[in-house]
Amino acid sequence: MKKRYLAGCQNVQSRETQGGPSLPKRTRINERGLDKLAKLGTVREAALFETLARDAVRCKLCERLCALAPGELGNCKTRVNASGRLYTLVYGNLSVIESRPIEIKPFFHYWPGSTALTFSTWSCNLDCPWCQNSSLSKTPPDTLNSRYYSPEEIVGMAVGYGDEGLCASFQEPTLFTEWAADVFSLARRRGLYSCFVSNGYMTLDALRFLADHGLDAIKFDVKGNSQTYKQYCGGVRGDEVVWRNAKEAKRLGLHVEIVNLVVTEVNDDEKSLRQFVQRHIKEVGVETPLHFTRYYPACKFKKPPTKVVTLELAYQTAKSEGVLFPYIGNVSGHSYENTYCPQCQILLVRRDGWRLKDYKLTEDQRCPSCHAQISIRGKHVRKPGRLPLWV
Length: 391
Fold this sequence. Notes:
10 helices, 3-stranded antiparallel β-sheet, TIM Barrel, alpha/beta, 9-stranded mixed β-sheet
């Protein structure tokens, strides 16, 4: 079954046909357009902003901190200043809904074997040229033709499909923080977990707001060092912000995993890999899972796929520096996808891509041989293997 794109599908197709042009930096909506938007269920007042002089506002959702005059859209195209107040255009405006294994994210130490109802909205606050989901991240919301999904509807859908939790993913989920917070609050009351797959370029206020409303795990996709962000991701100061947020997420008690997409001729040299590992240890500790994932050509970036030997070098570098749970990804069936006991080195979890093939940990997440405690959040879920379900 093909992935089902929801509101705005025709926009996605037409933009791909035209080559996916970059979005303008500052788009305006006239008063007539604002009046129409105000009547839509997907348009709500934003939670995080401050008012400025002359009816301008500053968005405080992500670290771009866009200052917007009346009628202006933010860099992400999901926020608009309407008469001196900031509004989100993507409250319940979803692009994809899909039931997926948690290991796909990847989360390897969080509710292993479970599935999460996974959803996304539109656009992004970064502009990475190798984006794997560019049909979503490079497309602004088609607000006037959107379909509103209520938090109750999504949580009910997760329960109905037998999912153990919820996950906001595919494009940058920070952009629909207000809706995600309402969904996660309801999910917590229904006994479901809630997680984010994020580029991590949110403000501390946004991270704490989400944690207060039920977010209990986050996977940070750290692109590389400051030069990587400056040259390839829109000139943002990303490495400092994302590592700061990863450290704060751990302090807040969230489960954290780190992913580094190793991109050919961008961040794949031995010096960059070692510096990345050392920064990981400094900011989030040796016990935090670290995934090095294989890049494939996508969007505007056409370098060849990452060499497997490079990923193996990254893994071995992490091990030599003391990281307890390094992994490589997008290399299905590789032994470095597996979890080994950091104390006695026996195989604990065998994987093939997102599939769990063998799980040897005890019920209280200990090594059956040396009884070392393995840092895993949630319980192992045993359910019949199933392909991702697009709904």
